[in-house]
Amino acid sequence: MKVKEIAQAAGVNPDTVRFYTREGLLSPARNPDNNYQQYDADDLRRLRFARKARQLGFSLPEIRAILDQADDHHSPCPMVREVFEQRLAEVEREIAELQQLRERMTTALSAWREMPDGTPDGHTICRLIEHWDETAAATCHEE
Amino acid sequence: MKVKEIAQAAGVNPDTVRFYTREGLLSPARNPDNNYQQYDADDLRRLRFARKARQLGFSLPEIRAILDQADDHHSPCPMVREVFEQRLAEVEREIAELQQLRERMTTALSAWREMPDGTPDGHTICRLIEHWDETAAATCHEE
DNA sequence: TTTGACCTGTGAGTTGCTCACAGGTTTTAG
DNA sequence: CTAAAACCTGTGAGCAACTCACAGGTCAAA
């Protein structure tokens, strides 16, 4: 398989395939005639695995670690369980943060309906945002 | 105020102040003696505004647009309302995606409790992840 | 006066791609 | 048979919003 073929088979951008190859997640053979990359079924398996793992929130270094362990005939699954549970906790924290944010946004939006727009006067820039509750917002930071 | 002082007053990293200055959100005067940046109360107001707007999900270009409009004595608030509503919709979409993801993760986790770890055998890399439901996960992509 | 804490600008690193570029190869249409 | 289109190659830059590192200048206190 050439780059475009494996990319289509996995449903990703060919540049992603090239990128993963550069990053060492894929190690295709070479066609000695034209120096093209030659991917096989095992590469496709690895690529699909990597994409699934990405959807689960694994980072590329984590995925590479799992793949490397699999290459060494170690069972990577306990590691997967561990990282997975950490990732689940993170997802739940993100949900909680976003829900807090949403709540404050809808509250602010309904409060704003009664506020005049007001041209900036040198003391306020936009009172809609300046009246946002600072301490409440402080707990909601992106990372 | 010098960089560190305004940074402390707004509760941000001094490098963030420098970065915002480079990006044109802040335009401090200069001390002609030593070429140090000199921030005033208006800069602090702009900085605090920018941070609040960031917490609300505005991008730096958006914030700069608001600030520029305020400088020109236009009322930026209608623009704020508009971008804010877009942002709220986005937050709600993110929440929905993360909730879907969490659900699939907890489902997978409980399914995995009954699965053996299994050393990779050349056909599977880690069955924990390979048995993740592909089509279900396809609807949850990061952007 | 020397140490330490600050200041300056610039450039690189972060993450996971995506795109652009310049040049080589292969396929397809005329 | 040839020319154009579509592919391949590697490398390097761009995204967002910082954060950190570096080398050199400035200033306060001991």
From TrEMBL, chains A, B:
Record keywords: Coiled coil, DNA-binding, Transcription, Transcription regulation
Pfam families given in the database record: MerR, MerR-DNA-bind
Molecular function (Gene Ontology), one example: DNA binding
Coiled-coil region: 81-111
Gene3D superfamilies to which the protein is assigned, alphabetical: 1.10.1660.10
Residue span, HTH merR-type domain: 1-69
PANTHER family given in the database record: HEAVY METAL-DEPENDENT TRANSCRIPTIONAL REGULATOR HI_0293-RELATED, REDOX-CYCLING DRUG-SENSING TRANSCRIPTIONAL ACTIVATOR SOXR
Protein name: MerR family transcriptional regulator
Organism of provenance: Marinobacter profundi
Upper lineage: Bacteria, Pseudomonadati, Pseudomonadota, Gammaproteobacteria, Pseudomonadales
